[in-house]
Amino acid sequence: MKRLIKIFSIILLLSFSINTTITTAQVTSPKSLGQGIYSVRDANLLVGTPINVHITPANAKAIILVIDSDHTIEALVRLNSKITEQTLPPLNYDSSLIIFSNGSVVLS
User: pTM above 0.85?
Assistant: First the structure.
């Protein structure tokens, strides 16, 4: 009887350890983009959630345009030494970002 309990407990322990899966939330690291035109899909940006943008270095200037697939301007954001951080509205897969900057823009 003791042997049967030992075997059963080993099999039970192995079955629990084999079937465990680790789930983690996808954490996006901040993306630093320079001057240029970027597709949201190609830049691997989050879709459907607001994105915070700020400039580096702090004395740089930047203008960010968010354009949708119909070539309509969805958002226009200006960053400078007084306003170094703002929030973009939620983006779509077919949106594009146009960045004019003398520094880099960090999206997080």
Answer: no
